[in-house]
Amino acid sequence: MFKIQTLNKIDPDGLRLFPLNNYEIASEIPNPDAIVLRSFKMHDMELPSSLKAVARAGAGVNNIPVEKCTEKGIVVFNTPGANANGVKELVIAGLLLSSRDIIDGAAWVKTLADKGDEIPASIEQGKKNFGGQEIKGKTLAVIGLGAIGVLVANAAQTLGMNVIGYDPYMKVQQALKLSNQVTWVEGIQPILAQADYVTLNIPLTPETEGYINKEKFNMMKDGVRLLNFARGGLVNRSDLKEAIAAGKVSRYVTDFPNEETLNMDKVIAIPHLGASTKESETNCAVMAVNQLKDFIEDGNIKNSVNFPEAFMERNDGARILIGNKNIPNMVSQISSALASEGLNIDNMLNKKRDNIAYNIIDVTRSKIDEQLISKLKSIEGVFMVRIIQK
Ligand SMILES: NC(=O)C1=CN([C@@H]2O[C@H](COP(=O)(O)OP(=O)(O)OC[C@H]3O[C@@H](n4cnc5c(N)ncnc54)[C@H](O)[C@@H]3O)[C@@H](O)[C@H]2O)C=CC1
Ligand SMILES: O=C(O)C(=O)COP(=O)(O)O
């Protein structure tokens, strides 16, 4: 029986892919093999020694102590692109909310509820206070051309916007999906200088914390509209406050409000709804569960943020999974240890990512003595060993 702990409510259409004869799923469960979560912050959590994997049903992994997981041999997964359409649609809504005074106008019109027959005339009289501008013909800068950024860029382009994009680390698969009407800009200064609207679609990492600061605001046009559907920490709060007060930013639309931004003028605050659609929740949960099952049952890795991609067809024997530091002489020590136990390697995969290597080894024997685990773990540099018996 594998034990799965859920730290957020996970879409049932995903969870039901865990066969109940083989999996126990609960929000509180001792010694879990794996955790599935959405935005729950795991940083203060003790990582149980039983934990083999963490699956983020979503994109951002800043709520997970990824480095600590890697040290403990815990594989962290996310679900790239699975909620990108949900976020794209809300970013487009954000573009419109920042352009037309829909929110203030809708709040004002409610105040007329007791005015009876005067309502239509009052509306025509008062609507002049809620005018706006159109997005057609305006320039949108998309910062981060990943799963979300590319969808936003393409959609905004079809709405008649002049779309420019910036992403020094863009993946080829994303480049192939980007409309050829979107202009690629090399530097952050030239892209911010041209933009009437800026949308942030980059991850929050130690490098991007406070990415939009005084220096970047100074590169922008006066009256720019800034959209942040990525993470609150990307924007320096006090610099934002100054930029709004100075008229540099005419609207800040964010899916990640906090105590300060909620109390600022010109801020449209949304309660982190980007991925809160049935479609995105199902897509993320299904992808997370399938990836997790493939890892727990067969050791294959797809869409991990800390381990290399690894897939090998199984034979009829047992499977040994080994994580080790990416240093010389590991494979020969591992195969000597297996040979000393009389194990014959049938098939082997060795994949590397940054400082770590991951091995999938199929042997001809179907049952292996679990003592092999401590023998392999005694090799300097090996930090994770698991045996999947046939
Ligand atoms: N509001 C919401 O509910 C949601 C928010 N998000 C946030 O959006 C972020 C992006 O999501 P996806 O597009 O799915 O991820 P992704 O990984 O497909 O795309 C991120 C892109 O940002 C680029 N990038 C990284 N650092 C950069 C920098 N300094 N300058 C320019 N580009 C940079 C990467 O090269 C990549 O192409 C997530 O990390 C998450 O924080 C994601 C999903 C839902
Ligand atoms: O996928 C992401 O990065 C998100 O921000 C979505 O978060 P959620 O799953 O809605 O808590």
TrEMBL record:
Leading EC class: oxidoreductase
Q: Which reaction does it catalyse?
A: (2R)-3-phosphoglycerate + NAD(+) = 3-phosphooxypyruvate + NADH + H(+); (R)-2-hydroxyglutarate + NAD(+) = 2-oxoglutarate + NADH + H(+)
E.C. number(s) listed in UniProt? 1.1.1.399, 1.1.1.95
Under CDD domains, the record lists: ACT_3PGDH, PGDH_like_3
**Any Pfam family the entry gives:** 2-Hacid_dh_C
Q: Does Magnesium show up as a keyword for this record?
A: no
Q: Which domain of life is it from?
A: Bacteria
Q: Name one GO molecular function term.
A: phosphoglycerate dehydrogenase activity
**InterPro entries reported in the protein's UniProt record:** ACT-like_dom_sf (IPR045865), ACT_dom (IPR002912), D-isomer_2_OHA_DH_cat_dom (IPR006139), D-isomer_DH_CS (IPR029753), D-isomer_DH_CS1 (IPR029752), D-isomer_DH_NAD-bd (IPR006140), NAD(P)-bd_dom_sf (IPR036291)
Domain ACT, first and last residues per copy: 319-390
Task: Name the UniProt key words of this record, in alphabetical order.
Answer: NAD, Oxidoreductase
Question: What pathway is this protein a component of?
Answer: Amino-acid biosynthesis; L-serine biosynthesis; L-serine from 3-phospho-D-glycerate: step 1/3
Alphabetized PANTHER family for the sequence: FORMATE DEHYDROGENASE 1, HYDROXYPYRUVATE REDUCTASE
The free-text function statement in the UniProt record for this protein reads: Catalyzes the reversible oxidation of 3-phospho-D-glycerate to 3-phosphonooxypyruvate, the first step of the phosphorylated L-serine biosynthesis pathway. Also catalyzes the reversible oxidation of 2-hydroxyglutarate to 2-oxoglutarate.
Tell me the protein family, please.
Answer: Belongs to the D-isomer specific 2-hydroxyacid dehydrogenase family.
This protein's name: D-3-phosphoglycerate dehydrogenase
Q: Which organism is it from?
A: Tangfeifania diversioriginum
